[in-house]
Design brief:
The complex is a heterodimer of chains A (188) and B (139). Helix content of chain A is 15%, strand content 51%. Chain A contains two helices and ten strands. In chain A, strand 6 and strand 7 form a beta hairpin. Chain A starts with a helix and ends with a strand. In chain B, helix 2 crosses helix 3. Classes of the chains: A alpha+beta (188), B alpha/beta (139). Chains A and B meet through strand 1, strand 2, strand 3, strand 4 and helix 2 of A and helix 1, strand 5 and strand 6 of B.
């Protein structure tokens, strides 16, 4: 009987530990900037409805966003982005699946901001490509509370063509910023 | 001849001005747009869960109207209102409001009935709508 109780206690505590190892958001912020140095207009958009999950036990991490949820300052730019560049009717989502390769350096028992290396596959516009990025994870009171990262992608890697007419405005390289506040994922 | 030149230049100037206006037109509001569909949140979510591609071909990028119960509400760091309308067991409808038209929605509480109009952008964990406004017909 004692043994059974012990097993149950162990199981329950292990379960709750596991539950606290995963963190998620449905309102992550991801922006991109493809303004070329000679462009008078800022080619910039932000998306504040990205989802993300991170598992602190093994570093696995995922992001997903909807292309049509990118908001531009100018309506026409947004229309061109969706129709001519990323073809969001055909490819509505962008997804990243990968991991924090140095997750063992992130100590959940100690508050602080930890530099991390991220590596994985990003799928956008029907193309999957490996990307690597540097970032930071912030730990507070045993939880991962936020994460940030900046990296660049080549638009040509994802088959996004730039018409020669706007070559001086649209940079071939887009700067991506990721800014996430995480909540613990409650076991359901 | 002079007349033709004059007319042409006027037309060209007007066209250029119109083009410039279109180019700089700010990201607009959908407050006056008629929705292509109006449905219950539970129904919209079930459509998406049954066949995402079929649902996308009906709703993606279009202004739609959804009614249901508020299950979550928060303001992000930029002060933009986000509501979640209850859908199925897991997925709901995530509504990101248009900051210029959210004032009448700020007093909503969890459990309230709402009717929201917005642009459908697809489904992740929730069906996501952006540029949302409260529907005028909501009572």
């Amino acid at each position: 009987m004692k043994k059974l109780l012990l097993i149950i206690t162990l199981f329950v505590s292990a379960n709750s530990l596991f539950a606290q190892n995963r963190f998620f958001t449905k309102t992550g912020k991801i922006t991109f900037d493809a303004t070329s140095p000679s462009s008078p207009d800022k080619i910039y958009a932000s998306n504040e409805k990205a989802t993300s999950v991170i598992d602190a036990s093994n570093g696995a991490m995922e992001f997903a966003l909807l292309m049509k949820a990118f908001s531009f300052e100018k309506a026409l730019m947004q229309e061109h982005f969706n129709e001519n560049y990323v073809e969001s009717d055909k490819y509505p989502k962008a997804v990243f699946k990968g991991s924090v390769t140095n997750i063992k350096d992130v100590n959940l028992q100690k508050d602080g901001s930890y530099p991390v290396k991220i590596k994985g596959n990003m799928t956008m516009h029907g193309v999957t490509k490996e990307v690597t990025a540097d970032g930071k994870l912030v730990v507070k009171a045993g939880n991962i509370v936020s994460g940030v990262s900046n990296f660049s992608i080549l638009l040509s890697d994802f088959n996004v063509g730039i018409p020669s007419l706007v070559k001086d405005k649209v940079s071939p390289e887009a700067k991506i910023t990721v800014d996430i506040s995480y909540d613990p994922l409650k076991a359901s | 001849m002079k007349k033709i030149l004059l007319t042409t230049s006027i037309v060209l100037t007007a066209a250029a001005a119109f083009g410039y206006y279109l180019f700089n037109k700010p990201h607009g509001s959908i407050v006056d747009d008629a929705p292509v569909s109006s449905s219950e949140a539970t129904y919209l979510v079930s459509e998406y869960e049954a066949d995402e591609n079929a649902a996308n071909s009906k709703y993606l990028g279009k202004v739609i109207e959804v009614s249901g119960t508020v299950s979550d509400k928060n303001l992000d760091e930029k002060g933009i209102l986000n509501l979640v309308i209850q859908g199925g067991d897991l997925a709901g409808i995530g509504c990101q409001f248009d900051k210029n038209f959210q004032s009448d929605a700020l007093s909503l509480k969890t459990g309230d009935q709402v009717k929201v109009k917005g642009i459908c952008t697809g489904i992740l964990m929730d069906v996501v709508m952006v540029d949302c406004v409260l529907s005028k017909s909501a009572d």
